[in-house]
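Please predict the structure of the following assembly.
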Amino acid sequence: MHVRRPATLASLAAELGVSRTTVSNAYNRPDQLSPELRRRVLETARRLGYPGPDPVARSLRTRKAGAVGLLLTENLSYAFRDPAALGFLEGLALACEGAGQGLHLVPINPEREDVAAVHRAGVDGFVVYSVPDDDPHLAAVLSRPVPTVVADQPIVEGVDRVGIDDRAAITALAQRLTTLGHRRVGVICMRLARDRNDGFASVERQQAAHFHVQRARLSGVADALGAAGVEWARVPVVERFDHSTASGESAAAQLLDSDPQLTALVCTSDILALGAMNEARRRGLRVPQDLSITGFDGIPEAERHGLTTVRQPVLEKGRAAGKLLLASVDPTRPREVTLDTEILSGATAAPPRTAEERWFGP
Amino acid sequence: MHVRRPATLASLAAELGVSRTTVSNAYNRPDQLSPELRRRVLETARRLGYPGPDPVARSLRTRKAGAVGLLLTENLSYAFRDPAALGFLEGLALACEGAGQGLHLVPINPEREDVAAVHRAGVDGFVVYSVPDDDPHLAAVLSRPVPTVVADQPIVEGVDRVGIDDRAAITALAQRLTTLGHRRVGVICMRLARDRNDGFASVERQQAAHFHVQRARLSGVADALGAAGVEWARVPVVERFDHSTASGESAAAQLLDSDPQLTALVCTSDILALGAMNEARRRGLRVPQDLSITGFDGIPEAERHGLTTVRQPVLEKGRAAGKLLLASVDPTRPREVTLDTEILSGATAAPPRTAEERWFGP
DNA sequence: TTGAAAGCGCTAACAC
DNA sequence: GTGTTAGCGCTTTCAA
């Protein structure tokens, strides 16, 4: 604890025998008063312990908070653990820093849907990072009369957005697998809705997914497999609520238990893919000789492990979101930014082994 | 961009033919008016597009911003790359979340010392994370009439603080080295002041360091070596401005070039130590057989590499800082929190090789 | 160069 | 259960 608010601009003006305008000018428009007077004002301020204009009062008056709000559905701490989210955060922070804007992380408790924090945030705009389309916090954000930019998901009519072409990106990746000859493919995806479903995801559930990104990625895989003559309805898709390597492990186990003939696992994130690789290792399956595995995101750890995946420019995405938001006054800015992705070939995809090889070795 | 602010609490009250209090109560004290009236108010609000009470105006009135400011001297993005800072951030976020407080990251540009961002931040208090004692942003924070908690450094009279006993922790670690028999020890430390000095740091510079933590850690090493009869003035200490493995590499190179007889390198952070390990490898020095290396922090990567180091509870530190700040109204809270550390034995410290062994192998 | 007046939008006593 | 009254501390035309 520090001292209690001692002086205000008004009391300082009274003390000095000048008007409040003058004191205000001393802080905000040094050129509007004589250097001598300004010096006197600042000097007296110091003497009285006046800490300068109150930021909140100033914000009320100027209608500018000088900060950008960031909404994440997960706990804040999750953002500091997930490499992709972290990259986004860094990019966004960079953009804010460049514009001298604060970054206000909105405290969300996913359990008790407390929308109040959104209403309490004194910010000039919001960046919403990857939330489900039925997220109540998102609704709260959109109800506020400030510009908003959504990163990744959801797609909301009339709201600016920055993202990638998830569907095309993963289609290209999955095509590599079909080209290599894979036909028996299992899929591991992240949560599709706000309710926990750790298990197989029916086609209905996939199509009803509240996370557009996951929906798009599954469609992309379906596109590639469909083009290779594989019926999507027969492709096992396992969903996991928590985004962790442990999830990837158990999901891979579930898939491989249900169909040991699978020759490839397509994962909709690197984290899940890294988990799947752990599980393959545990089972004595060599990757990629016995099992191909692909990821999505291109996080550093994936690269270190030579994962075959899609790299998306997460830092750039954060920066773009920030820039888009901070340029909201400019009517000529783009309303939507789609960033490029790139396939990282890695070393976890190879032709499937034939049945013969499976039994008798290479 | 969204819509322009359409309605205010007052206009809504007028429209409804009720007082502003009633509308305010509808939002803030549902029990103060009939459910029916409340329903009508909210309904009309929706119809008029009234987004609910303006957070800034409310903050001005209630004198509560609902957010905690975080001051870091580095670029914000640095914090997202440094594992220790990240852990702290996560802990702090956790504490804020638990209290429903936002976390306002103050945008700092280390180049152009722009203290204005500190004055502009609408927050109820500040957490200051590891800045030099002459940091102008810190001064700005302390000039504001809000509670402040410093994490790690600097130590400021009358300001709450959370940290660890850096000196004792590293003394214990360095003692392990002296006990193993090391006498020719080199030290790699982080920046000691705001000016860049990538090279040897004289004892004077060490003692004048503006970063208390580094000063304490160097003293700690000096304590241990002194107890073993090694004169500190003869111990080479190399400083690096940037905190990166590259710094650790070049610092280790500088030390080993200047004195190939060194048998151990004490680093004041894990990042630097990991860099030093890289350099040792490059030179064909085996760790720990040919060279012992120790770190500080206990970041996950250090543990993965089996680094002999001190683990400090970074997440806990962040959480403690948040809790301390948010408990500022409570006069019985501690004014200072010192967290425990623990030595991670690792596998990078071993007895020094004798001169003979050096020449003829083990 | 300085000052007077008019709010920014809201909440909190306190009275009805 | 509802209204009246007073500001919270500041910036900003506009006039002097």
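The longest helix of chain A spans residues 83-98. DSSP finds 16 helices and 13 strands in chain A.
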